[in-house]
Specification:
Number of helices: 3
Radius of gyration: 31 Å
Structural class: alpha/beta
Shape: rod-shaped
Largest sheet: 6 strands, mixed
Distance between the termini: 111 Å
């Protein structure tokens, strides 16, 4: 008996539709994904010509060029600042906070104070400079 083998036809799978769907899903995921959530604090920056105008009822935080801090004219440290902020904001979360700087204060010093304010929940912040 002599059997003749039949050659099987190679069946190809059409991947065009699959590639289209994957491409559309990839675009959808890229457009709808949020990788970084940035939090920010509203900040009132001083105008160039205005004099220091810290509100009288605001909590005044003054930064000196040597890094020392004063909260309502009382010297304090960064830990003391956080405690004072927590106490003041605990009593009234809408407390206005005026951060006063002088010439020679570095941006890092200001950022450290702003971080302390933000981490204790302060949101109503004004930055001004003292002449």
């Amino acid at each position: 008996m002599d059997f003749e083998r039949r050659r099987r036809a190679v069946q190809e799978i059409n991947l065009t539709a699959l590639i289209d769907i994957v491409f559309h899903l990839m675009v959808f995921v890229m457009l709808t994904t949020t990788f970084v959530v940035s939090e920010s604090m509203e900040l009132s920056l001083p105008s160039g010509h205005a004099k220091a105008s810290a509100p009288s009822r605001a909590m005044r935080i003054q930064i000196a060029p040597d890094g020392s801090l004063q909260v309502d004219d009382a010297a304090t440290s960064m830990d003391g600042l956080s405690a004072a902020l927590a106490q003041r904001l605990g009593n009234n979360p809408e407390t206005r906070i005026a951060v006063l700087t002088t010439a020679g204060v570095s941006v890092q010093q200001l950022v450290n104070v702003m971080d302390a304010v933000y981490l204790t929940g302060g949101r109503n912040v004004q930055v001004d400079k003292v002449m």
